Amino acid sequence: MSIHIYPFSQTDVQDLVQMHLDNNSPFSNMHLEALPKTGFIVRSHDGKPIAAGFLRLVEGGTAQLDTLITNPSMTSQERNDGLDLLVQTLIITAKSMNIIGLMCTSTVQSILMRSQKYGFTPLKTTVIVLSLI
Q1: How far apart are CA 30 and CA 79, in angstroms?
Q2: In this predicted model, what pLDDT tens digit does every residue of 4-26 receive, in sequence order?
Q3: Does the structural domain 3-117 have CATH classification 3.40.630.30?
Q4: Around Cβ 17, how many Cβ atoms within 10 Å?
Q5: How far is the CA of 33 from the CAs of 49, 67, 84, 88, 96, in angstroms?
Q6: Do residues 122 and 116 make contact, with C-beta atoms less than 8 angstroms apart?
């Protein structure tokens, strides 16, 4: 199966929302304005969304891999290939933007294993958050 990656645009928002709904993600009520400016969507040869993700710029010349999601209706191999293409593209894009470091948070074991394949170093830390809404 051939897959293709495209810069994320407004026309992709509904597919992104649907992937979040299909994954029972709490981020299904998102708007284009809330998404980082740099993102990509991976599609199958027939246009079905496979994966999407973004680079969220952070101070100090770093960025966070953000809103990575896959389409659960695609096969495991399609999702794997889509995520590989997506992460490779995000890393290349970050380098072209002179970003000096990338970070990502996850508790999903397969994502943690994939991240090490690309050179990410796992850290022992606890993330804390405060909702302001």
Answers
A1: 22
A2: 999 999 999 999 999 999 998 87
A3: yes
A4: 17
A5: 20, 14, 26, 25, 23
A6: yes
84 and 95 Cβ atoms separated by less than 8 Å: no
How far apart CA 67 and CA 47 sit, in angstroms, is 20
d(CA 82, CA 103) in angstroms, rounded, equals: 20
CB 62 within 8 A of CB 100: yes
Side chain identity, residue 68: L
Give the residue-averaged pLDDT of 110-122.
86
- Note the pLDDT tens digit of each residue in 37-76: 999 999 999 999 999 999 999 989 999 999 899 999 999 9
DSSP of 8-24, one letter per residue? --GGGHHHHHHHHHHTT
Residue type, 100: I
Sequence spans of domains, the chain: 3-117
